[in-house]
Amino acid sequence: MSNQQANDPLNFMRNMWGNMGFSLPGMVAPTFDLDELDKRIKDMKAVEGWLRMNLSMLQMTIQSLEMQRTTVSAVQTMSKMATDTAKSMAAGPTEETAAPQPDFLNAAVDPEKTAFSEAAMWPWQMMQQMREQLQHSAEAAAAAVNEAVETPPEKPASRRAKK
């Protein structure tokens, strides 16, 4: 028997796995027992579900970190813009910057207005600008209609006159 065990190439692997306290994996020594196969399928499906859950948790973590990075980047950019604007206003207007500044930049001049109060008002300011643009467009369209009504269109020459 020892000669037969010496010729068995998987004997070393069986002994190694057996000494660890669990049997040789099914990939090396497949089983033909249906109950054992059903048990392994059930176990593998449980592992698959666990891995999918971990994958979805990992994907959610990645997405939240990406959102956090975007938010931090936006806040840093806004801070840099506000600092640059405050520095340019403190230096005094030059010929290039003599143009009127937008409303949200006036917070650097007015100490009662903070960057946070102005940042909270940007949706309102944007809606006001959109309302003004729509009002100007409506006024222009109404003026065009009134102009078209006041001036009658020219009548084309009749075909009989051409003949």
Provide a quick synopsis of the model:
With 163 residues, this protein is mainly alpha-helical. Among the domains are: 1-30, no CATH class; 32-73; 113-144. The chain has helices at residues 2-7, 11-19, 34-91, 115-150, 159-162.
Query: Cα-atom Rg, whole angstroms?
Result: 40 Å
Name the helicity range.
55-70%
Which geometry do the CA atoms define?
elongated
Q: List the secondary-structure elements in sequence, H or E.
A: HHHHH
Arithmetic mean of pLDDT: 75
Structural class: mainly alpha
Number of strands: 0
Strand content: under 5%
Per DSSP, the total helix count is 5
Main pleated-sheet profile: none
Q: N- to C-terminal separation?
A: 123 Å
Which segments are poorly predicted (pLDDT under 50) over 5 or more consecutive residues?
none
Describe the structure in your own words.
This protein is an all-alpha fold and 163 residues long. Among the domains are: 1-30, no CATH class; 32-73; 113-144. Helices cover 69% and strands 0% of the residues. It contains five helices and no strands. The protein has helices at residues 2-7, 11-19, 34-91, 115-150, 159-162. The longest helix is centred in the middle third of the chain and has 58 residues, at 34-91. The radius of gyration is 40 Å and the shape is elongated. The relative contact order is 0.03.
SSE blueprint:
Blueprint: H1 2-7, H2 11-19, H3 34-91, H4 115-150, H5 159-162
